[in-house]
Every structure is written in C-alpha cells, then in structure tokens.
Amino acid sequence: MGLFSRFSRSASNTRDADDAAEAQVGVPNPLPLRPTSKANTRRYPKAVNNAIPDSGDDGPFGQHCADDAPVWKLYMDLARISDKNLAKLLNSDLDSLLIFASLFSAILAAFLIEIRKSLQKDLQSDTNNLLAILIHNQHNLSDPQIPSSLAFQPTASSRWVNGLWFSSLMFSLMSALGASVAKSWVTQFSSAVSGSSWGDASAHCHRFRGLKRWRMKLIIQSLPILTHIAFILFSAGLVVLLFRDDLMIGLLLLLLTATILLLYLGSSIHPAYYSDSPFRTPVSSMIRRLLFGNWRRHEANSFPAGEQAQKAQALTWLLTESLNIDTINAAVCAVAGLNFTLLVQDELLQGSTASILSGVLSTEVSKKLPATDSLRSSLYALLHIVRAAPADPPSSRVLRALVEAGGALFDPDFVSPCVQEVALCLKGRIILLLNDDLPTSALFQTDIPFLAKSCSDPYLRCLFIELCLLSHQSAKSSAYNPPYDFLSILKDQTAANRNEVHAEFVKEANSGFSLASSPSRNNVTPHSAIPSCEVRDFGFVRWTCHGCG
Predict the structure, then answer these.
(1) Suppose 65 and one of 23, 252, 334, 459 were both cysteines; which one would form an S-S bond, judging by CB atoms 3.0 to 4.6 Å apart?
(2) What is d(CA 115, CA 524) in angstroms, rounded to the nearest whole number?
(3) Of 298, 315, 337, which one is at a domain's C-terminal end?
(4) Residue 148: which pLDDT band, with cuts at 50, 70 and 90?
C-alpha cells in the first residue's frame, strides 16, 4: 500500500511552480510518487517550516529536559528512596560483619595470649630445670650434671601456630576497620541527597556514577571475605597445634576443617555455572567474571563532561529504577528532548533504556488510538539511540524487532497519522544501521525524499535529510564524494573515529537543510560536499540519488 496520496490542490500549485522553475534550467521531470488508496492517506502540512533548528533544543520535547523541568523532582524523589534502601541494605551487612569480626577477634586474642608464650624463653621452666639438676648433683656427687647454655629456639610448630593465628587476627581486625570506614562511605552517599532541580540531580548522578565506577558496593560486599580468610587461618593453626599435642584429635580437626573449606569453595563456584543457584558467597560474582571474562562489560565510564550526556545518564537510571507509569512517561518525554549526539546515545545504552522505550512504543501503537504524548515522545526518544549502530547486542535485537514482522513499526500505516513522519524516520534509521542488506524498498526511493522536502518540522526534516545522505551513500554513487563513508562507519561499532564522522555527517545534513530553507535556492551555489551533477527533483538539493530516488 502506498504512503502518499497525490498532492492537494495547493500543494500541486506549489509543485507546478517548482517544475516551471526547474524547466528553465533543463531539469528532468520528477520521479512519480506511488499511488495510494483513499482509505489510508497520510496528510502532511502544506506549509514548510524553514527555521533552522536550535542545537540546544531538539524537537517539541526540549522543555521536558530543561534545568527546571518537573522530571528532576521525580528523579530526586526516587533517588532519596533508592539511596535510603541501598544504605539500609549495606548497613545491615556491615553491622553483622562488625559484630562477627569483634567477637572473633576477642576469642582469637584469648588464644593468642596463651600460645604467644611458646615464642619466648620460659623462665619458670628454666628454674625448675636448675632445681632438678641441683638435686641430682647432691645425690650423685660422682656424676654431676652441667646446666646447658644453648640459646632458646622456639619449635617449628609454635612458629606455625603463632604465624597463622596472628595473621588471622590481622585479617579480622582489617575487616572490622573496613566495615567501620564503609559505614561512613554509606552515610556520606545517602545523606547528600536533597533538592529537586537539575543541579541536585546532576550532583547525585556524579556520586552515583562514582559509586559504580569505583565499585563501592562490590568492595563493601567483599569485606566478609577477610573474616572468612581469618577463620580459615585460625582453623589451620588449630590443626597444627593439636597435631603436636595429640595426633588423633589433630586428624579429626583436619577432617572437619577440610569439609568446611570444600563446602565454602563449592558454594562459591556453583553460582558461577548456574545463575539460579542460591548458594552464594562474596566471591561468587568474582569467580564468574574471572571464568567467563566479562570484567570489561561491567565497567562504568567516568562521569560525562557534556550536560546533555549527564542528563541522559540521569534519565537512564530513572527509567531503569522507576516502576511508576507517570514517572516513566515523564522520563521518556525528557529523553525525547535531549540533543541528538553520540554521547547521549552511549549513555542511554548503559541500561535497559532501549527495551523500556520499545515497550512503551509497542503498547501505545497497540492501543490504536489517536496520537498521544507517550507515543510521540517514545518515537522521538528511540531516535536518540539510533544515531549510530548500537554496540550493545540486546539493544540491537530490540530495535530490529520493531521493524520486523509483528513489530510496532513494521507497517507505519497503522500508526496514528499525526506521528507517521516520526515513525518513518525511526524505521528508516533502524533499517539502514541495523540491517546487513541494503534497503531497496520504496521507502528510500520516494517516501523519505518527499518528506525531506515537505516535512514542516525542522528537526524531523534534518533527520530525513540525514536518512537521504545515508541511503544515497549506500548506493555508492560516483556522483557524490563525501569526506567519509558515513553509513559504513556509523554501522561499525568499533570505529575509532565514529564521533568525528558523526559530527561531519550532521554538518552535511545541516548544509542540505540550509539550502532547502533558502528562498532563492535555484541561485545558490551548492555546498562543496553535496553533488550537483545530473538532477532529480530532490526538493532541497540537486543531485543524483540512485539509492533514494
């Protein structure tokens, strides 16, 4: 089924005027548009807004992510609840650790007071030996004994026991000290949440990113490992001590210690292979990451420098953590108002934002109701995560499912007419960046070029021009020699110059928009990066676009 109806009477008059102007310079007739049925005709505004978009306010949702937008109050409200719950969880672990470490250290100190004597010369024992020698000499004058003058040497078993137990005491005290210091970390993090503006939300984001980047939660949850090591060292020293005193008791204690150690290792390694295993220890997650080599995937970057990327980080967290529908809708609107940059895309892909936005879009489309703010904002928001091909495989699968059979964007004719332009722009972007095969459908031959000329929304119009640039390059036309192969680089998730290429790509699109907005475009010299050879009626620039008509 075709996308467009023939132009309205006023639109036809405008087109006739353009054709007459083109005829004066020898321009061939335009490509015919596909016929459409009257039952499903998309109506577009007659007037074209030629205002150049402001880079600081993308689209109609820019006010939703302003510094004084209500979404930041929602963010801070959720941040207070989340930080309070996190502090409660960590403090409960630290309190139990402090109690255990204190009791264990006290018990171990009692053992050490007694065993430490074996490292020193026992004066009482020397006195007893001298008395025994004196009594012997008095009764055996013919065979007197001479006291030994050898230096004192502690036994090997005494050294082992003292070494193991003193090491155990140090590990226990380290865990207690770490727990007390960690409690101050938690208090500082949770007590700094206040206010309701973007400045307050930005400060919280900065602290929260630091918490993730430097793995504060992992460090706190790993402190019990020190007490576990202390217990193992104490058990080993006890085995050595009892082996010296009684072999049978030593063997029995060795068996019990080995059993405990095997159970501990088993409960640590078992979750590494079975994610649903309830038998976990603080080292289970470390072993899993070590075995499967996914340490890098869990690393967090430093706090982004750009304000828009910082807002994207905050909104990603809000979408991921909130379960309230109103809060999610407010966050989606705020995401839709961000600037279209790769830094914003990278921050949005940190969590499950793609899945959440796709879910909101699919739900709104399935209602088959007139366009709502939720539907429009979810479309604009999803455009932010297809500036380049996402490097996150789950996000790529979610986005690709939108344009496949059964997806919300598979047939844009079922989308509300008020948002069909945005839906087509999003669908085209997903097809170009996430499909291996180059598109050959009429979407890139007629629909998108027409919208690049007639779309009344300046932001969407720039995005359609970007689509034309990408689809034109996909045809590898010899008439166009851009500084970069935009499509291939933006599809390559590992490209080192991706940011540079995207900036140049946006610059090319803005150049095309400026030419389109000029009232005397027939007399304007084309931009150096835009081809000007054989002409098809592309509306805003004059070029041969073999890939998009």
Answers:
(1) 334
(2) 95
(3) 298
(4) low
Q: What is the DSSP letter of 5?
A: P
**What pLDDT is recorded for position 484?**
72
Fill in the DSSP letter of residue 412: G
Tens digit of pLDDT for each residue in 431-474? 989 876 655 567 787 888 888 888 888 878 888 888 888 887 54
What does the alpha-carbon distance between residue 100 and residue 234 come to, in Å, rounded to a whole number? 14
Amino acid at position 17, single letter: A
Domain tally, the chain: 3
Tell whether the model's pLDDT for residue 543 goes beyond 70.
no
Domain of residue 202 covers: 72-120+155-298
Same domain, 85 and 233: yes
Name the token pair of 182: 């960690």
The answer to whether residues 355 and 475 belong to one domain is: no
Closest CA to 430 of 384, 389, 476: 389
Asked whether residue 224 falls in the same domain as residue 190, the answer is yes
Q: Which of 298, 330, 346 corresponds to the end of one domain?
A: 298
Task: Answer yes or no: do 202 and 87 share one domain.
Answer: yes
Q: Quick count: other Cβ atoms within 10 Å of Cβ 199?
A: 11
Three-class DSSP category at 208 = helix
Which two structure tokens, joined as six digits, stand for 325? 């529908």
